[in-house]
Specification:
It contains 13 helices and 14 strands. It is elongated and about 80 Å long. The protein has two domains: about 150 residues, no CATH class; about 130 residues, Endonuclease, Chain A, CATH 3.40.960. It is an alpha+beta fold.
Length: about 350
């Protein structure tokens, strides 16, 4: 009997003897059913992270229904794309085909011997455009090859079907890891139901966000009605030297940076030999240099991000700088671009 990925058993092609073995293993509480026709080895399952368990569930659904394609947030999950903070892992698994009907299939009733972490998830099937399967890809996984949406289709699906926050975080994560044409994504949305909301999400998408939390911070500022800041801005001194690159900067000279834990992880050639304390010290030195050049630096951390207070503080600083401009010359900075479209 074949065990996929060291944990998953699919019963579709098992012979009579193997099915008898499945029954024995169930009586011994050594396996558990996560959907009809799919079992996991309990000892191994309990060592998996929630994300690994989700990948196993998606693979089980795809292998039991090979005529369907893994789409939307389920395709994004298999690709390891970022999700918003506190994103649940119990959302419906998304599958589709040209002949599917749009329907949410509730999970089957849990078996008496099932633990809560083993109970099946709901499955949402969707009807896909006629050309979708020709663009889909076979993704090699530890469970075997799974048919998934191509990156452009996946981005269009996130924009169409997911809340704005999840869509923007996911699509910007895809742009950091995949070669995706946003023009192609926009073309795929043509004549699709839900296009206006999807286009709103795409208006917030750029290639400049370097982390999921930057994406979320941008969304919060947009929702608060703030003017669009510039992203990934290099600050230049009078000698033409780059003092540093910042997350966001308003044209008036207000710099906004997200102080997430990932900023101080030692990632990057310049920081590999530095301790966390040294990285923190370097950040503060950089901040002082920016302030000495006349810029105002405002930091958002995980604690302040959970409330709306930081948005009010940014608004107050912007109003103050409109009344008393800093006089920052455009020659003192260069940016990747605006954080969102003003159209």
């Amino acid at each position: 009997m074949k065990v996929l990925g060291g944990v998953l058993i699919i019963t579709r092609h098992l012979n009579a003897a193997e099915r008898k073995q499945i029954a024995t293993l169930r009586r011994q509480f050594r396996i558990s059913r996560i959907r009809p026709g799919a079992y996991v080895i309990r000892e191994r399952w309990n060592t998996l992270t929630p994300q690994q368990q989700l990948h196993t569930r998606i693979a089980a659904e795809a292998l039991c229904q090979p005529e369907l394609t893994v789409i939307g947030r389920s395709a994004a999950a298999l690709l390891g794309l970022a999700t918003p903070t506190h994103h649940p892992t119990t959302l419906p698994i998304e599958l589709g085909s040209e002949s599917s009907t749009c329907r949410l299939h509730p999970p089957p009733r849990p078996l008496k011997d099932q633990l809560r972490a083993e109970t099946p998830l709901p499955v949402r099937t969707r009807k896909l455009p006629a050309s979708h399967r020709t663009r889909s890809l076979l993704m090699r996984t530890e469970f075997g090859d799974l048919r998934v949406s191509c990156p452009a289709d996946m981005c269009a699906e996130l924009a169409l079907w997911c809340p704005l926050n999840e869509a923007v975080v996911g699509i910007e994560s895809a742009l950091r890891h995949q070669d995706i044409s946003m023009r192609k994504v926009a073309e795929l949305l043509r004549d699709r139901h839900g296009k206006p909301a999807a286009e709103e999400a795409l208006s917030l998408v750029t290639r400049f966000s370097e982390s999921p939390r930057e994406s979320e911070l941008k969304i919060r500022m947009w929702e608060a009605g703030l003017p669009a800041p510039y992203q990934q801005v290099e600050i230049i001194n009078d000698l033409g030297m780059v003092l540093g690159r910042v997350d966001f900067m308003f044209a008036c000279g207000l710099i906004v940076e997200y102080d997430g834990a990932e900023k101080y992880h030692l990632n990057g050639n310049a920081r590999q030999s530095m301790t966390t304390e040294q990285v923190l010290y370097a950040e503060r030195v950089r901040e002082k240099l920016l302030q000495n050049e006349g810029f105002v630096v405002f930091r958002v951390d995980a604690s302040s991000f959970r409330s709306d207070l930081f948005l009010l503080q940014i608004q107050e600083i912007l109003e103050r700088l409109r009344a008393s401009p800093l006089g920052i010359s455009p020659s003192r900075w260069r940016a990747g671009g605006l954080a969102w479209s003003n159209d």
